[in-house]
Amino acid sequence: MTYKTNLLSLASYLYTKEELKFIGLDKSDPTQIFFKFEPLDVAEAASEEYFTGDGKANPLELFKNYKVLKDMVFEVKRSLRRTYDYFDNQTPPQRT
Q: How far apart are CA 59 and CA 72, in angstroms?
């Protein structure tokens, strides 16, 4: 199973942890984008560290990963926006 979060700051922290594998983005919900990590038990423990303030991470690495993940989200949103714009700007075929 995978661990999913829609919090960019938490995802950045998890992305920084070497023992976790970033699986990708879950775009199945059109209103949210989730970041997926494995293994589940390690991700849950790291998430607990993050929320309790006990987590440790290199600040430069954390900030770099924040930017990487943010860029992924914006690219997905840009792609979706282009798709919707394409369909919104199509003129319906004329009946004859």
A: 20
- Distance separating alpha carbons of residues 32 and 29, to the nearest angstrom: 6
How far is the C-alpha of 35 from the C-alpha of 89, rounded, in Å? 31
* E-assigned strand segments in the chain: 3-5, 21-26, 34-38
The neighbour count for residue 12, using CB atoms within 10 Å, is: 22
| 23 C-beta neighbours (distance < 10 Å), count | 13
* pTM of the shown model: 0.79
Look over the chain and give the mean of its residue pLDDT values, rounded to a whole number. Answer: 86
pLDDT at 19 over 90: yes
Which of the 8 DSSP states describes residue 1? Answer: -
What's the pLDDT at 84?
Answer: 54
C-alpha span between 6 and 26 (Å, rounded): 9
